[in-house]
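Team,

Forwarding the record for the chain on the shared tracking sheet. I've put the sequence and predicted structure together so nobody has to dig through attachments.
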Amino acid sequence: MRFYLVLFSLFFTFITKAQTYNPNRINSKAKDIYAKAMIKLSNDQFLSSIPLLEKSIIIDSNFVDAYLSIAGVMGQLKAYPLAVKFYEIAQRKDTTYFRPYYLPYSINLAGLGRFDSALTVINNFLTLPFLDDVSKKSAEYRKKCYAFGVQYKKNHPNSNYQFLPKNLGDSINTELSEYLPTFSVDDSLLVFSRRSPDGGEYFYRSPMITPSHFGKATMIPGDLNQETYKGALTVSADGEWMIFAGNIHGKTYGDYDLYISYYTPKGWSEPENMGEGINSEFWESSPTLSPDKRALYFSSNRPGGFGGKDLYVSYRDKKGRWGNPINLGQNINTPADEQAPFIHADNQTLYYTSNGLNGYGGTDLFVIRQGIDGKWSMPENLGFPINTIENEGSLAIAPNGIDAYYASDRSDTRGGLDLYHFELREDVRPAKTVFVKGFVYDEKTKRGLPSNVELIDNNTGKPLMVVQTDETGFYFITLPTGRDFTFTVNRMGYLFYSKIYDLKDKMADSIYHENIYLEPLTLNASLVLKNIQFDINEYKIKESSKVELDKVIQLLQQNPEIHISVCGHTDNVGNAADNLLLSSNRAKAVMEYFISKGIASNRLQFKGFGATKPIADNNSESGRALNRRTEIQIIAL
């Protein structure tokens, strides 16, 4: 803007040595213009006050109050470099007169990330005599924030991170406010809220072209946008559900509640209140849904928390019922407000805002990570410059863990809050993920089968995610890289499917297509247990094999009429008699494992076949690996 250039020019023109400032000696014309500027400032007309303040300084270059007022205006506009420069001009004009302004000066230094300088200035401010209690309290609070900034920088000394937010442009942003971005993983759809001139909030969608370039945003069709009083929303990873906060007349338990809408061929369905299991007579908002749609995180000010607004989670059982919300605990929640949770596609990294944890001032963004034991880590501040001395809002992270989106009213805003894209700093990124999608089919009819797709962590043997396919059998699931998982599919009346995913060396952000065919439970139906592993010439069952064996046990428990034979096979390397004995011992070991878990022995038998029934060429290692297998076969129903 033009006035920025003028002010920089003024800075270099009017710096003089410190002197005693006498307001009574200021040019009267400069005072008159300054008085007009003060009227505009009293009406929050910051931009229109600047030309008047400029004129008053041009008329009288020793007008310290005008410099201080311009500095204050620049601080309000978050133009921290200019604010600091004009505070420093005023300080040079008269160091004594400037002392009461140490507090706002320090705030603008902190706005630039100069926390060490800000700390020095605020300490000087606290030595001034006759400070009232309000000033002391404000200064002590800022001192704590600056000290945090200094310490955080010491703990992250070698960061070359550059925070370069880019406005998403006219396809997304307007003269109105856009905020609360969220994503649908499977089709790269950005969904966000826009406030209308009448005060209502409406949901919009836009397809991603590149991480910082989106197609023209359009209002989401269907009944979802018929209600005026609604706010924060989340969309499921498969794009089938949308959950949002609203205050819908006749459908609420009290204040804002959480509602759900389902995608249909005719658009989004009429919103349904998610029920008193999740909602209360108090305020519920800021929903975020896990990628497997089994965990719903949100913020609420209901009684029984740690004060203010706390984060809660509700888990959905196998029958689709949501459990009573669980407070995430005092390590995460504080006596102040925790809001805007966002669970990443890795299903183990959650971002949220808090104004009760140590930070830079106002509301900061934090990250927590869920360990293999299910416990959350201590909150980690995302650091400057992602967090600032202002209030930070909601944050959404794309599935790749790099591209981040948030709302801000930066200098290039189209009006109010706009949506921006930036790259997240590496040490606060979520786990890298790969995506697997496809259909579950009936092996005989080739029709799609609604089924449960389960992801089990091989290190713990516990499910990390469970995804329900749609009616056509389509599924979409995210898998964090760096660990091994067993991928299983279950449906009553069918043999289960199981496959190990070794993701240590898989390329992140890749999409794998895996169509799965389930075989009906019929006599002589067989299933190769692909994940049963033994050491060379050994028949002791490994821990990693028990994940799949436990699925066989589950199958036998759900179908008590089934009898099976466990069949062991080897490749043709070595002595045929030794291979026959080895395959028999391995099959027996598997059968005995089933018995140890409560399966009746009269439902089980075993047999070893050695290398007599190959299913692949034994002349290659890949073929021999396929021939070394354990199968189960249904021998009675």
